[in-house]
Structure to design on (786 residues):
């Protein structure tokens, strides 16, 4: 792959900014869709009756659609800012991505379908589909990003030689498991905010039990990362970067502290900090690659060889500066308006 | 089958399935916002009931439209990676802008709309309905600008072995894209009008909720009449531009072989691979006039277009005839309903037939897109990149697996979704409808 960018030019700085924005989009996506995927995966274990099932679905109902758009935006920005990386990443991870899409499709319609028909079998079908198709995207996203952190076997034209089963290597699977557990924790904390009574107690107990699991898996995953990937290389060159690790660590500690103090919003916020910090740690680790190549780093798809033209990056930046704050603003408003504890009478409107 | 054909089929299936739901979303979202506004202005409860009833059907339709749209964005990368690499500089940014400027708005506020009946004032709720409608149609603008680039590329230069953006204004003011937009949105409104008419007629025959469905029918029939005519007239202008830019598409859709002035249009044609088997009932000069608004204009024939540059003739031809045929029928159906709108009990047969007319605008829209996309072949970006050069170097096995899985999944979900919409439509409105999740 040849370089498209001259170091130190405006083009170069624009591409750097877009790398950061690209990372931010994925981080926001994990934080937001993370809790509704987690809530969906927890549903069969937490809901004891129809009212509780509906409460759980309603806890994410107003938000899941707006959350999922962050995935579309992250995909779209990969396409717009780093088209070569997009082309190779999406075709290289072909089957894994298709499975991710199919599960998200089933999950999306299950929200809308389940309660439209008063029939137990119908509801059970969609409840099962909802749970399975919340769990699988969490796993698949973890596997995909685990492999990206580790590096994907790319040939000299940047095309992946992995295939679906090549992605299911130990480190990729470890990434999958970590994502699932993190999202379960994130979802349980969300439920503590939005539920009352028995269901609330159960959600809280689940979060308290999950916490040590998250801590242990985080430490194990970091150790695995250190021995198995080149993710720490950038940190060895600039040790100051290790400060970033304070984010997930602080998030982990605060999560438990606030949970103990029954400050549920703060606990969920700490979980956001933890997820954001963890993802940021990985994204800074792969810099300047978007898709690092492993074993041959020369074949990596990087900022330098994958970026769009200067003009495209400029226009996109203008769009981002105008619209991203707007999006954050109205989504924040939607959360403020709807993220209140659900009472039974709220299930009818 | 090779990867190219499989990928083309997969993309066709994904877009066509997506487009069972998109037009109704575009059209009905505007009508629902209008109903809510009427409620706020007049205080008449029937409009609130309307917004809730049609809104319920809308939500099922919307969910299927959204989730199938994700597949499309990702498919450019999965199945058409060489296309993505070659034109991503332009095409990718349009999709990214669509997500950032429109789709976020649409998806955030559909949740607010759905769950906000109690939490928001009627005025605020109506505003949210307009936001959803506006954002949906804004999405369409960006998607059609992206498609416009594939149909008539502009504002780029070939540099660094790819198409790079040089003139963003040229890309977003692409005439083709805007002609498409003003053809598509009226078509979507016409479809929503027919949807309201069909469902309302079904209830009016059965004398259920007569006041409610009479009012719904009147909205539907007015919208259907106005916009079926607008769509047809605008389609003609769109056709003029197409004749200039894509002569091969024009020749294929008319199965027109000999380059000639004063070219006729044959009412009866059976197209073959090297000429027509049957040509009968000519209207002299009609083709020249349709293409260039001039009975004596010269129209290029397929014989002067190399075989490797011709689109599939039979499909393109059939798609065009289907679109125009249904497009001519719909204003007539709507006009009859509009004239008789206050005396519908006098024409029970008309009411009985109307529910079966709901598929008509759907078929016309599919045919229109088939004409646009199949008629563009063998190019993925007209004159710039061939479809055969655009496909991903993935294995046929992987594509087959995902294609079969996708078709199975889509068939199941589509059937369930359409069944659900029919069920909700037949159930009719409830006075205090609890909207459940």
């Amino acid at each position: 792959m040849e370089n498209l960018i001259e170091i130190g030019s405006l083009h170069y700085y624009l591409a750097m900014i877009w790398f950061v924005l690209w990372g931010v989009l994925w981080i926001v996506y994990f934080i937001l869709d993370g809790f509704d995927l987690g809530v969906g995966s927890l549903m069969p274990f937490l809901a004891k009756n129809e009212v509780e099932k509906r409460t759980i679905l309603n806890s994410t109902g107003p938000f899941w659609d707006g959350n999922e758009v962050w995935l579309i935006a992250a995909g779209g920005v990969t396409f717009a800012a780093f088209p070569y990386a997009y082309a190779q990443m999406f075709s290289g991870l072909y089957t894994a991505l298709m499975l991710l899409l199919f599960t998200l499709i089933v999950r999306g319609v299950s929200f809308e379908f389940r309660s439209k028909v008063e029939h137990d079998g119908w509801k059970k079908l969609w409840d099962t589909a909802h749970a399975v198709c919340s769990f699988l995207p969490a796993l698949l996203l973890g596997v995909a990003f685990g492999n990206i952190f580790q590096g994907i076997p790319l040939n000299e034209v940047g095309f992946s030689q992995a295939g679906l089963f090549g992605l299911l290597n130990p480190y990729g699977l470890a990434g999958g498991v970590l994502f699932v557990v993190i999202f379960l924790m994130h979802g349980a904390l969300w439920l503590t905010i939005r539920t009352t009574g028995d269901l609330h107690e159960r959600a809280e107990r689940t979060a308290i039990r999950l916490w040590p699991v998250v801590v242990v898996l985080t430490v194990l995953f970091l150790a695995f990362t250190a021995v198995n990937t080149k993710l720490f290389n950038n940190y060895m060159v600039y040790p100051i970067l290790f400060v970033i690790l304070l984010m997930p660590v602080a998030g982990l500690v605060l999560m438990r502290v606030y949970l103990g103090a029954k400050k549920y919003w703060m606990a969920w916020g700490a979980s956001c900090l933890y997820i954001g910090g963890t993802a940021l740690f990985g994204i800074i680790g792969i810099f300047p690659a978007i898709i690092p190549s492993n074993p041959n780093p020369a074949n990596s798809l990087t900022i330098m060889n994958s970026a769009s033209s200067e003009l495209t990056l400029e226009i996109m930046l203008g769009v981002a500066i105008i619209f991203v704050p707007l999006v954050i603003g109205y989504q924040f408003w939607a959360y403020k308006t709807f993220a209140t504890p659900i009472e039974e009478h709220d299930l009818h409107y | 089958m090779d990867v190219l054909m499989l990928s083309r089929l997969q993309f066709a299936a994904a877009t066509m399935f997506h487009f069972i739901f998109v037009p109704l979303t575009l059209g009905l979202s505007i009508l629902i916002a209008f109903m809510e506004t009427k409620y706020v202005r007049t205080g008449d409860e029937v409009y609130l009931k309307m917004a809730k009833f049609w809104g319920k059907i809308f939500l099922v339709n919307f969910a299927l439209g959204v989730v199938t749209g994700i597949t499309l964005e990702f498919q450019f990368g999965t199945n058409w990676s060489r296309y993505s690499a070659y034109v991503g500089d332009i095409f990718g940014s349009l999709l990214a802008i669509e997500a950032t400027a429109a789709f976020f708005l649409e998806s955030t506020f559909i949740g607010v709309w759905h769950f906000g009946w109690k939490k928001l004032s009627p005025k605020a709720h109506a505003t949210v309905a307009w936001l959803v409608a506006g954002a949906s149609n804004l999405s369409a603008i960006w998607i059609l600008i992206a498609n416009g680039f594939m149909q008539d590329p502009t504002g780029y230069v070939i540099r660094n072995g790819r198409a790079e953006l040089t003139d963003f204004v040229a890309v977003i003011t692409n005439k083709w894209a805007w002609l498409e937009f003003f053809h598509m949105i009226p078509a979507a409104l016409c479809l929503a009008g027919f949807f309201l008419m069909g469902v309302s007629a079904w209830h009016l025959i059965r004398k259920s909720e007569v006041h409610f469905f009479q009012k719904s029918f009147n909205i539907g029939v007015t919208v259907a009449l106005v916009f079926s005519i607008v769509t047809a007239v605008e389609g003609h202008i769109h056709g003029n531009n197409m004749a200039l830019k894509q002569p091969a598409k024009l020749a294929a859709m008319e199965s027109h072989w000999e380059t000639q002035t004063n070219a006729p249009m044959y009412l009866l044609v059976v197209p073959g691979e090297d000429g027509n088997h049957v040509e009968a009932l000519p209207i002299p000069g009609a083709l020249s006039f349709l293409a260039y608004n001039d009975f004596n204009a010269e129209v290029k024939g397929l014989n002067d277009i190399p075989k490797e540059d011709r689109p599939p003739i039979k499909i393109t031809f059939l798609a065009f005839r289907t679109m125009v045929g249904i497009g001519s029928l719909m204003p007539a159906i709507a006009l009859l309903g509009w004239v008789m709108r206050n005396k519908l009990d006098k024409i029970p047969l008309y009411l009985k037939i109307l529910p079966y007319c709901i598929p008509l605008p759907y078929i016309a829209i599919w045919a229109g897109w088939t004409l646009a996309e199949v008629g563009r072949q063998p190019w993925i970006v007209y004159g710039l990149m061939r479809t055969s050069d655009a496909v991903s170097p993935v294995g046929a096995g992987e594509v087959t697996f995902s294609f079969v899985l996708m078709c199975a999944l889509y068939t199941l979900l589509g059937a369930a979704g359409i069944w659900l919409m029919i069920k909700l439509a037949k159930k009719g409105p409830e006075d205090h409808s609890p909207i459940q999740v």
Observations:
- The longest strand of chain B covers residues 276-283.
